[in-house]
């Protein structure tokens, strides 16, 4: 069956360090992969979208990589700040299911000052 | 530009009742998707509407239904509520296909079933 896996354990990181989150998938061949941030009691907020033919994408302190051979995306937050503390979700399109977006379980990040 | 608006923000119902949730997308967005979020199952896709037509559907029972109006506003309805329907219901809008475009989410409706 199709599966998207994100580390369910919270990631505790010191301010100023780089946080790296993983998103692994099986039995998919997604054309697009998206990353979202969600704060408690709020809806997810879009961060980055990367296409299957793109290896890397950056936006300010954020960087996403997409390795279709390893079936993995890495999400990096450089020079992390306490305000980056949130849950981060990856989402993939499933072509076989009419291109609906499927989300991983999310990884909670806690940046300590 | 106003964001996605969901009403109501909180709702308490009892088993067996039905409920209607509303979503106003960003102006100009024609695609509206609905999701259910629970601590155990995460964010799960319910259905997507585009130009008043259901374009995609998740694996939820027929008690969950939706519709979209000509102004792109959308509603979802859950009938014969069960305790397990307690969740945060989120809607998201985009210009077109949710798979290749950023989804703009509302802050959801928190539904509690007693």
Instruction: Tell me the Rg of chain B in angstroms.
Output: 13 Å
The pair of chains with the biggest contact is: A-B, 26 and 25 residues
Quaternary status: heterodimer
Question: Shape of chain A, please?
Answer: globular
Low-confidence stretches of chain A: none
Q: Mean of residue pLDDT of chain B?
A: 95
User: Helix coverage percent of residues of chain B?
Assistant: under 10%
Strand portion of chain A: over 45%
Helices and strands of chain A: which structural class?
mainly beta
- Residue runs with pLDDT of under 50 for 5 or more positions of chain B: none
Number of strands of chain B: 11
- Mean pLDDT score of chain A: 92
Distance, first to last CA of chain B: 37 Å
Largest sheet of chain A: 6 strands, mixed
The sequence of SSEs of chain B as H and E is: EEEEEEEEEEE
Number of helices of chain B: 0
Report how far the terminal alpha carbons of chain A are from each other. 41 Å
Helical run tally of chain A: 0
Shape of chain B: globular
User: Care to count the β-strands of chain A?
Assistant: 11
Task: Give me the secondary-structure topology.
The complex is a heterodimer of chains A (113) and B (114).
Chain A: E1 3-6, E2 11-14, E3 19-26, E4 32-38, E5 45-51, E6 56-59, E7 62-67, E8 72-77, E9 86-94, E10 100-103, E11 107-112
Parallel strand pairs in A: 2-11
Antiparallel strand pairs in A: 1-3, 3-8, 4-5, 4-9, 6-7, 7-8, 9-10, 9-11
Chain B: E1 5-7, E2 10-13, E3 19-24, E4 31-38, E5 42-50, E6 53-57, E7 64-68, E8 74-78, E9 87-94, E10 104-105, E11 109-113
Parallel strand pairs in B: 2-11
Antiparallel strand pairs in B: 1-3, 3-8, 4-5, 4-9, 5-6, 7-8, 9-10, 9-11
């Amino acid at each position: 069956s199709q599966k998207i896996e994100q580390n369910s354990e919270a990631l505790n990181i010191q301010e100023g360090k780089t946080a790296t989150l993983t998103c692994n998938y099986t039995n998919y061949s997604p054309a697009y992969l998206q990353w979202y941030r969600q704060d408690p009691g709020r809806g997810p907020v879009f961060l980055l979208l990367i296409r299957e033919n793109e290896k890397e994408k950056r936006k300010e302190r954020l960087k996403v990589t997409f390795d279709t051979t390893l079936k993995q995306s890495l999400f990096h937050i450089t020079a992390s700040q306490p305000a980056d503390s949130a849950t981060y979700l990856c989402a993939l399109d499933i072509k076989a299911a009419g291109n609906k977006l499927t989300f991983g379980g999310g990884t909670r990040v806690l940046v300590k000052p | 530009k106003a964001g996605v608006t969901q009403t109501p923000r909180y709702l308490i119902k009892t088993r067996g009742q039905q409920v209607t949730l509303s979503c106003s997308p960003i102006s100009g967005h024609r695609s509206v998707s609905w999701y259910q979020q629970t601590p155990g199952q995460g964010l799960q896709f319910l259905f997507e509407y585009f130009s008043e037509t259901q374009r995609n559907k998740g694996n939820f029972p027929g008690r969950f239904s939706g519709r979209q109006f000509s102004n792109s506003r959308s509603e979802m309805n859950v009938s014969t509520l069960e305790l397990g329907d307690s969740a945060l219901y989120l809607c998201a809008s985009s210009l077109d296909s949710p798979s290749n475009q950023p989804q703009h989410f509302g802050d959801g409706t928190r539904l509690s079933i007693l």
